[in-house]
Every structure is written in C-alpha cells, then in structure tokens.
Amino acid sequence: MSNVVLRRVAVALASVVLAAGCDNDLDPGTRLVDFRLLAVQADKPYAAPGEEVTLRTLAVEPFGRPVSYAWTTCANPIDSNANACLDTIVARARAGVAPVFSQGVGNDSFTTKVPDDALSSLPEQARSGAIFGILTVACPGTIRIGPLESAGPTELPFGCIDANTRAELPYERFAVSVKRVFVRARDRNPTPAVSAVLWDGAPWPEAEIRETVACSNDSNKFDDCPGGETHVVAALPAPDGIDSGTDEYGKPFVEQPVVQFYATEGSFEFEARTFESAGAGTKWVARSKAKGREIVMWFVVRENRGGVGWTSRRVRVKS
Amino acid sequence: MTGNPLTPAVAAIYDADAGAYSPINGTPFSARSGPFSRLDLRVDKTWQITQTFKLGVHLDIQNAYFRANPEGRTYSYNYAQSSVMTGLPFLPVLGVRGEL
User: Fold this and answer.
1) d(C-alpha A8, C-alpha A14), whole Å
2) Which burial class, exposed, middle or buried, applies to B95 when counting CB atoms under 10 A from its CB (0-12, 13-18, 19+)?
3) Domain definitions of chain A by residue range
4) B11: helix, coil or strand?
5) I need a labelling partner for A275 at 20 to 30 A (CA). Which of A48, A154, A192, B70 fits?
C-alpha cells in the first residue's frame, strides 16, 4: 500500500473514532428563539443584614407576550446550590410557613430586605457563607404556583400558562431562577459593566446597526455555515469593576469576570470568554433563518462574586 | 445486554449567578440507556522464525458490525433535549509481536 493510501486510511479511521459520541445536534444556549431569562442583577451583590436590595431581570421574549414575574426569597438555604433555595422554600411550606410571592405582569424588578438575623442566626464559623437567595419565576403568560407543601423532590412546583395559546408550557419555555446575595457586615461589590463592544475589531456603539450576510443553511454547528459572512464580536468588561483584595474574613480574592454571548439568531464559535480573552471575542455567523431580519445580540458580563451587567447590539441580516 | 440505569433530568432551575441551568433529577435510576451489543473479532497467527524467535501477527476488530452503542447521555444547555453518546463505532487494530 502506498504512503498516500495508508495516510488516507489512517485519517479515515481516526475520523471515525473521533466522531464516536460527538454526533449530537442540540440547540445551543446562545440562540434565543423562545422566552429566556438571561440574568438577574442585584444592585448590591454583597449586602448587610437589614439592607434593601433591588433586583432586575434581563429577559428576552421574541413573541411579544406579556411576561409575568413572581418573586420570593430564601434566607440561608441548606446549601449554596441553586436547587437548595427551592428545596428550602418547599421545606418551609411543608412546615407551615407559606412563602410570600410578589407577583405581577411586567414586574421585572423586585426590592427586598436582607433579614436582620441573616448573619446572627448562623454559627460564627458559617457566617462567611451566608446567602440570601431570591427565587424568580418568569413566564410569558400566567404563573401557577404550587402546591408547594406537597411538591416532591423530583418536580418543579411552578407552571406557566402561555398568554397566547392558554396551554401549559413545559419548564424550558418559562424560567425558575435563583440569584444569591452574599450577606456580609462590611464587604461590598459593585456590579460590573461592559465598557465597549467591538465588531471586527472596531468600536460598535449601541446606536449603530451592523449588516451581514447569512449562510445558506440552518445548522447548529458554527463551522457548518457555507456562504455566510463571519464576524468577530467582543465585549470588554470595564476594568475598574474588577476587584481584588482581602474580604472581611481575611480571605484574599480576585474577581474573574466572564462574558457570555447570546443572539436571537445565528451561531457563535464560543459561548463565553474570560476577562483575559474578552478582547479576542468570538466569531459569529447568521444562519439562513436570519435572512431579512434584525438580530439582537446580548453581552452579559458575570463575575464570580455575584455581580452581573449587560448590554445589547443589533445586526441587520441581508435578504 | 440491557443498558446502564440512569437518572433522567426532568426539569431545571436557572442559576442566575452562573448563567447556567441546574437539573432537577427524576427518580434515581428510573431510566435505562438502550441495549448494548458488540462483536469483537481477533485473528492471530504466530510463526516460529528461528529456534529462539517467534513472530506473531494479529488483527483485532472491535465492534465488528459497527453498532452505535449507547454509552451515556448528553444534555442541551437547559436539559430539555438530550442525545445519546455512542461508543467506538469500529476499531481495527493490526499488531505485530516478536517473542525471544
């Protein structure tokens, strides 16, 4: 067998082996084709007992349905996992302490107070992990709550009736979210911001709508998009919002922001970038479905101490 | 053989700090992967070259009938979609062995 044939056989075999287990075509989380809750921002990611915290949401509803919100809280849930806040609310409901929900259509902001005993009710050695959780239900229609006291550990005790069809939506078409506010006596953490957005390396002001050409198919894979224009988009976290130092318990910290990318159509090469790689951004291409449409891109910056900020830009896709 | 037991994700909560979903698992081991079957073949031949040296050649074929065997499950970002991860599709290995 010639070297060329051997090489071809080797490449073919390697491709077959590497392809094993990688043949899925699941929808990427960056594409916003239905109602999505992308972020919940606390004006004070770190707050003291008794302090007021205001939360606001970033939600995307492409069909124009009115969005309802229900908000409640869980002080010091049983652990720091997102699910633990819900478990704590359900456990308290079973114990006869029904949670109070603040509900309403368009109620996308919520102000609450950190309980006065959020630190003092914990043993001294547990206070550095004190959390005040905020549970948000966001639904493009009417929210159904509970019954919480009989909810099992394998169910989501909330529902959402679609505002248009009046049908009950599956869980992935509305959102149940948990946001943590870290309870500290003195530590504070300002929310981060996006200082600049770049389109192919050039500044991209919020008012400017960029133009692009879509590819000829609707594949979920970024690399499988023939004929489309690929653009590099980047969002730069504001450097002055990245804190470092020593917290009130003497533990050193350095904030590590991450930028996440979302768009109402198209495919990103990367879903997120770290602060160090934020300038390099990610490539993005519009799929065939985007032809003739105006696409909204969202850039969400999150850091590992609860801070979150965002901005958006628009792209027009030629027909 | 029957597939491995697995615990399916039945819903998910959005962790607004991580920007990622956290699954709510169903009843433990309440589902199974699909059945698993595989045929492996091996042909082995040894020659006595000299009094002190033997040379063996073998061809080992794993998953001879190219079955896409389920080995696990991968979920979409919000656990609403899932797809089966499959094992090695077909792996021929040609080997040479010298024995003194």
Assistant:
1) 10
2) exposed
3) 36-183, 194-317
4) strand
5) A48
Going from the C-alpha of B89 to that of each of A42, B41, B63, B65, B77, the distances in angstroms are: 49, 14, 6, 9, 26
Give contacts of B74 with chain A, Cβ < 8 Å. 24, 26
A91: number of Cβ within 10 Å: 16
Tell me whether domains A36-183 and A194-317 share a fold: yes
Q: What are phi and psi of A91, to 5 degrees?
A: -65, -40
Which residue ranges make up each domain of chain B? 5-99
Q: Residue A38, SS3? A: strand
User: Does residue B49 contact residue B23 with C-beta atoms inside 8 Å?
Assistant: no
Question: ipTM of this model?
Answer: 0.90
Query: What is the residue-averaged pLDDT of chain A?
Result: 91
- Fold for the domain defined by A194-317: Immunoglobulin-like (2.60.40)
Question: In the CATH scheme, what architecture does the domain A36-183 have?
Answer: Sandwich (2.60)
**Which chain A residues have any C-beta within 8 angstroms of a chain B C-beta?**
13, 16-17, 19-21, 23-29, 37-40, 81-83, 86, 136, 154-156, 170-172, 175-180, 258, 260, 272, 300, 302, 306, 308
Q: Which two tokens stand for residue A16?
A: 């077959």
pTM of the model: 0.87
* Digit-coded pLDDT (tens) for B37-76: 999 999 999 999 999 999 999 999 999 999 999 988 899 9
pLDDT at residue A18 above 60?
no
Confidence grade of residue A82 (pLDDT, cut at 50, 70, 90): very high
Residues of A in contact with B80 (CB under 8 A): 170-172
Partners of B79 on chain A (C-beta within 8 Å) are: 172
Q: Which of A18, A24, A81 is the best residue to mutate to test the B interface, defined by the most B CB atoms within 10 Å of its own CB?
A: A24
Strands (E), A200-248: 202-203, 209-212, 230-237, 244-246
For residue A13, is pLDDT > 80?
no
Q: Do A300 and B78 touch (CB under 8 A)?
A: no
Cβ-contact A193, A202 below 8 angstroms: no
Residue B17 Cα, gap to closest chain A Cα (Å) = 6
Among chain B residues, CA nearest to A27: B76
Residue A72 has pLDDT above 80, yes or no: yes
